[in-house]
Amino acid sequence: MARLIDLGNDDWQLVRRVQRGDIDAFGRLYDNNYRLVYSYVLQRTRHAALAEDLTSETFIRVFRRIGSVRFQGREIQAWIITIARNLMIDHVRSAHSRYEQVKKDFEPADILADSAEQAVLARMAGSELRAGIAQLTDAQRQCIVLRFYEDCSVAETAAIMRRNTGTIRALQHRAVRRLAALIESPQPRNQLVGEGIG
Hints:
Layout: H1 10-19, H2 23-45, H3 48-65, H4 76-93, H5 95-103, H6 116-123, H7 126-134, H8 138-149, H9 154-161, H10 165-184
Helix pairs in contact: 1-2, 2-3, 2-4, 3-4, 5-8, 7-10, 8-10, 9-10
């Protein structure tokens, strides 16, 4: 069994020192890894303030759990990034998160049109898109937000929504087709009041 003290990885040495009660070592571990975690979260959330919040929460959890981490042949960064990833999944699962990106002004041009479904979404104006999303079922709306706004893969979306990947693909397909139909034949604005996005 590998011993932490024998490792050449500087950050693992810092972990060992923190586990012995050296708080200054945690400050160095934070400094060494903050940019990595922030970049990882920002790339996936595309929201600077949210990335800062999730990065800070990541290091709070790192500090709370550092006493139990043990070397298992990987760099400590893998463990830290796993914590950050789990925080992002928790955030996406929350009801607030599911809809905050839709409520904001969104530029559909930000969606890369590398598939037929994304091409349909990219043609839609922001206000029309929000109005259309408001008329989807809860499951369709959550699927669209996760896939296109949060940039989750089909597998990640399936895990978050607790469904299988085939169901998610079908749900996404139906949601995009319904959005396209809604954009072509929009309902009057007064029929959208109270739908949840305004």
